[in-house]
């Protein structure tokens, strides 16, 4: 059932939430009603008698009833339960139960009924056993508190534990189950004698005593807790009395027993005020409880005394003395009842249950839940007489479950999102980090925290931090901007805008553009202000400049600038910021504008550097003409560095527009690079290089022409264009070369005679060898030139050869020359003629003799004969030769006519093969005709049939198959044809 306080709280929260949502400008929504923070449910459990004591740990419950019966039950499995009668073990009155966090170890303390007959007793009961064991070692002490080992998980030993008495003594011991004995004999060495600086009690040394809080004042220890700092040998020990909370912190080695006594030793001679937190109290008890997030080390504690609730935080690494703990402790008053009755005396809690943000205070007739931060009551529940008095409220330290037991009933509490409204408390207390931590799951609440923090920072004139918080929050954009504009804080506004920009979705193009332009304007204004103060080289200017460069380098900003280049450029130009204009073009990769800017400022080398730094090769073609005029050498170096990445043809406009010696030298250097290194074969490139050579360097022109060779189809330049260009530039030697390429040998020799006689001779030698008439004509031109120009008879005589005779050059000489000048040449010529006539006669005689010899051989061959035996066989088929028509050769090889034809036909050419096939058809046709047809004769006196047979014989029997030239021609023919290979291979397999 939801309590009245929870209902009021929920209504209040919904009211506040509606107001907050309205202030944000969003539509109010109806929030689903959440359950109260604390809800209670009654369990189906009724004890057999009134409950007097109860403990719960790790879902294991032990309670004692008025009939002196001990009841145990597994809350996880309620069927696991048992009862133990205490009357069998003692007649004393049960004063308390102590159960360790694992639920395995239980201590029972009993008070004597009569001081003269019995003493206080301490008994032990294991979860695994039904037998209670009695201790005689501590029989004289009344134990009121036990500090369990929170790290222990064993069910057979407790590990080191602390025991507090009603007289303020603190003992250390360890219980180990071995056989039926209570304390293991081996632990005797664990309890050493009391040090001589502790007081003696009844002239007796006290075993196991590690500290005395009471100092003979009979001050009971109400709570004992100790924790080991994870990963260290440090220990934190808390001991509470009705009016004091002691805190001990120190190191201890587990190998040395007693372990925890090592922590107490350094406090034995310390002033008492340095080890406890005091609270005046007339109560005979106090309650101390811890809350831990990880079940190992406590994060906070609550100490309930007469004066109120002491609530504090704990840091296991920093809190090494009580002073640091005191600094974080606050005193909370007890909650007042809803309807306070001033006639009644004040009530104090008998038990507490601590959660992270709340505390449940158990009274004999009610339970109140109070928020530890707001100090407000959030829950109140009354218990009527039907359930009996409330015995205790318990929080299971292992599971976090909260249980309440009255004399006759059992209840379970559930905690529902107790942190739901904690953010508001932190926010009111200006603890914004914590407020954001606990409101992060609710966007509206989280936004409220951000707005409040931003407003507070704004009021404190922490404008930079305020801008950052406003940027994180969802609020009126215009309102926030106006706030910073009113206080003249452009830097803070800039931060706000930048943070807002980073939070925008990339699809919000319009908002991004607006913010980018505004931020750029703020940066430019700031930079302009510093420049106007003459502080352009100051550290402040550099800092703002660096921030601006970082901003425009952001990906979303750079994309926005590229989309709105004209606007940004105009903005920068309006502020006169040329430096940032250049940098911006670099960031936005607008290299064309940057290059134009440098060219406009006549910074041609800078323009070239920008051109080199980018990868858009179209810009090379665009700006090369201007840069070639101004910085030809660096540009050509750059073009060469780019190599094949650039197309030389597209650079022609820049190359042909050059004037001056420096320019043409650089153009030639680049063209030579294209031709030699890049192997460029474009005629336009070669023609341009030839034109520059023709104008400026005739030596390189000839070297180039010679390197291209004499084959017109293989040269890369236009011969006719080059010839015309060389003729215009009077490059005669080059023209001679080109005339030769065009086979204009006469023109080449004529022009060469004007240049160089040797060149003319070279061209005459280069003329076609098979055209003797042309060659003779060219050499006659040279001879005529020598005779007419130099009148050198001896030089002219040197040209006499097989082509040119003395009679050919005689017309070139003057009529006044005497024959004495040519006597030797004429005599030599006549001798040559005589020798040729004699050689011809000898050749004629030799030919006559050869003809006569041939005639004699033919005549003798006609009368030649041979003998053929009946046993002779065909060389091909190895059958008797005379069974079929055959051929007999002078080499004595014999073949059947059909065998010879079959062997010879594949070796015949296509023409002979076709002719042979035709002749065979004719012969077959003639064989079927009448004898009259066969008897007809021609001019030769042979019948048509004989003529056909003779022609067939001439084809197949002109030479022996084995001894003739046919065998030599087919020496490389394989024995097995390709198409026969597979079949023959299978046959051999």
From TrEMBL:
CHCR repeats lie at residues 639-795. Transmembrane segments: none annotated. Belongs to the VPS18 family. Keywords: Coiled coil, Membrane, Metal-binding, Zinc, Zinc-finger. It is found in: Late endosome membrane. GO terms for molecular function: protein-macromolecule adaptor activity; zinc ion binding. This is Vacuolar protein sorting-associated protein 18 homolog. Residues 823-857, 909-936 form a coiled coil. Residues 37-415 form the Pep3/Vps18 beta-propeller domain. One of its GO terms (biological process) is endosome organization. It is a peripheral membrane protein. Residues 871-969 form the Pep3/Vps18 RING C-terminal domain. PANTHER family: VACUOLAR PROTEIN SORTING-ASSOCIATED PROTEIN, VACUOLAR PROTEIN SORTING-ASSOCIATED PROTEIN 18 HOMOLOG. GO terms for cellular component: HOPS complex; late endosome membrane. It comes from Dendroctonus ponderosae.
């Amino acid at each position: 059932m939801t309590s009245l306080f929870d209902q009021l709280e929920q209504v209040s929260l919904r009211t506040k939430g509606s107001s907050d949502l309205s202030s944000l400008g969003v539509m109010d929504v109806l929030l689903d009603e959440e359950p109260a923070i604390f809800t209670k449910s009654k369990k189906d459990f009724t004890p057999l008698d009134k409950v007097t004591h109860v403990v719960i740990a790790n879902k294991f419950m032990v309670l004692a009833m008025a009939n002196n019966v001990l009841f145990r039950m597994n809350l996880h499995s309620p069927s696991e339960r048992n009862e133990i009668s205490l009357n069998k073990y003692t007649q004393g009155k049960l004063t308390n139960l102590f159960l360790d966090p694992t639920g395995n170890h239980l201590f029972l303390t009993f008070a004597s009924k009569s001081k003269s007959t019995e003493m206080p007793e301490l008994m032990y009961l294991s979860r695994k056993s039904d037998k209670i064991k009695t201790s005689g070692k501590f029989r004289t002490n009344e134990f009121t508190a036990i500090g369990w080992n929170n790290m222990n998980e064993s069910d057979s030993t407790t590990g080191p534990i602390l025991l507090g008495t009603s007289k303020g003594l603190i003992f250390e011991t360890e219980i180990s189950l071995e056989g039926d004995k209570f304390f293991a004999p081996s632990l005797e060495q664990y309890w050493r004698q009391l040090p001589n600086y502790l007081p003696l009690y009844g002239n007796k040394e006290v075993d196991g005593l590690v500290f005395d809080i009471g100092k003979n004042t009979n001050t009971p220890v109400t709570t004992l807790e100790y924790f080991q700092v994870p990963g260290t040998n440090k220990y934190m020990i808390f001991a509470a009395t009705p009016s004091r909370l002691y805190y001990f912190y120190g190191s201890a080695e587990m190998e040395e027993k007693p372990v925890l006594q090592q922590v107490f030793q350094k406090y034995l001679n310390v002033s008492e005020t340095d080890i406890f937190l005091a609270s005046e109290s007339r109560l005979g008890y106090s309650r101390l409880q811890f809350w831990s997030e990880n079940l190992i080390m406590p994060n906070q504690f609550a100490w309930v005394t007469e004066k109120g609730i002491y609530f504090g935080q704990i840091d296991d690494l920093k809190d090494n003395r009580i002073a640091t703990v005191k600094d974080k402790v606050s005193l909370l008053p007890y909650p007042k009842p809803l309807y306070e009755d001033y006639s009644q005396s004040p009530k104090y809690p008998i038990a507490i249950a601590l959660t992270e943000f709340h505390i449940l205070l158990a009274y004999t007739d009610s339970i109140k839940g109070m928020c530890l931060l707001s100090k407000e009551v959030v829950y109140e529940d009354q218990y009527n007489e039907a359930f009996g008095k409330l015995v205790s409220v318990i929080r299971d330290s292992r599971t976090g479950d909260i249980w309440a037991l009255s004399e006759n009933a059992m209840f379970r509490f559930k905690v529902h999102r107790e942190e739901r409204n904690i953010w508001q408390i932190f926010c009111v207390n200006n603890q914004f980090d914590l407020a954001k931590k606990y409101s992060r799951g609710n966007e509206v609440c989280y936004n409220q925290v951000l707005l409040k923090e931003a407003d507070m920072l704004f009021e404190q004139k922490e404008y930079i931090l305020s801008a950052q918080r406003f940027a994180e929050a969802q609020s009126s954009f215009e309102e926030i901007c106006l706030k910073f504009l009113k206080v003249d804080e452009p830097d803070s506004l800039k931060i706000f805008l930048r943070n807002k920009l980073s939070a925008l979705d990339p699809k919000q193009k319009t908002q991004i553009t607006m913010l980018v332009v505004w931020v750029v304007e703020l940066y430019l204004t700031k930079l302009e202000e510093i420049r106007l103060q003459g502080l352009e080289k100051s550290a402040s200017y550099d800092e703002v400049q660096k921030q601006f460069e970082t901003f425009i380098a952001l990906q979303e900003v750079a994309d926005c600038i590229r989309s709105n280049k004209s606007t940004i450029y105009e903005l920068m130009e309006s502020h006169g910021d040329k430096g940032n204009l250049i940098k911006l073009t670099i960031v936005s990769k607008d290299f064309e504008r940057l290059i134009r800017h440098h060219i406009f400022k006549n910074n041609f080398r800078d323009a070239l550097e920008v051109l080199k730094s980018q990868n858009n090769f179209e810009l090379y073609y665009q700006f090369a003409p201007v840069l070639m005029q101004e910085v030809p050498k660096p540009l050509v170096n750059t073009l060469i560095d780019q190599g094949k990445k650039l197309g030389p043809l597209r650079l022609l406009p820049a190359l042909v527009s050059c004037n001056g010696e420096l320019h043409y030298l650089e153009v030639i250097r680049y063209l030579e690079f294209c031709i030699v290194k890049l192997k460029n074969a474009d005629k336009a490139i070669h023609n341009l290089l030839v034109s520059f050579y023709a104008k400026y360097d005739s030596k390189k022109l000839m070297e180039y022409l010679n390197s291209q060779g004499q084959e017109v189809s293989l040269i890369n330049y236009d011969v006719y264009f080059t010839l015309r260009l060389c003729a215009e530039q009077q490059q005669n030697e080059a023209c001679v070369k080109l005339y030769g390429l065009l086979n204009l040998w006469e023109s080449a020799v004529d022009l060469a005679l004007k240049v160089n006689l040797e060149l003319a001779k070279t061209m005459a030698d280069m003329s076609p060898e098979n055209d003797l008439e042309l060659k003779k004509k060219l050499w006659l031109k040279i001879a005529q030139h020598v005779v007419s120009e130099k009148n050198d008879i001896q030089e002219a005589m040197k040209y006499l050869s097989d082509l040119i005779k003395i009679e050919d050059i005689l017309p070139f000489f003057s009529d006044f020359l005497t024959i004495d000048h040519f006597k030797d040449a004429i005599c030599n010529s006549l001798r040559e003629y005589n020798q040729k006539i004699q050689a011809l006669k000898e050749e004629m005689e030799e030919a006559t003799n050869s003809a006569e010899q041939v005639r004699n051989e033919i005549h003798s061959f006609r009368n030649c004969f041979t003998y053929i035996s009946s046993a002779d066989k065909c060389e091909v088929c190895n059958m008797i030769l005379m069974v079929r028509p055959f051929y007999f050769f002078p080499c004595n090889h014999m073949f059947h006519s059909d065998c010879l034809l079959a062997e010879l036909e594949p070796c015949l050419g296509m023409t002979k093969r076709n002719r042979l096939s035709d002749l065979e058809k004719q012969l077959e046709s003639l064989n079927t005709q009448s004898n009259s047809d066969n008897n007809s004769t021609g001019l030769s006196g042979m019948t048509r049939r004989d003529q056909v047979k003779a022609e067939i014989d001439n084809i197949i029997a002109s030479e022996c198959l084995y001894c003739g030239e046919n065998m030599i021609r087919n020496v490389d023919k394989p024995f097995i044809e390709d198409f026969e290979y597979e079949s023959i291979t299978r046959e051999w397999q």
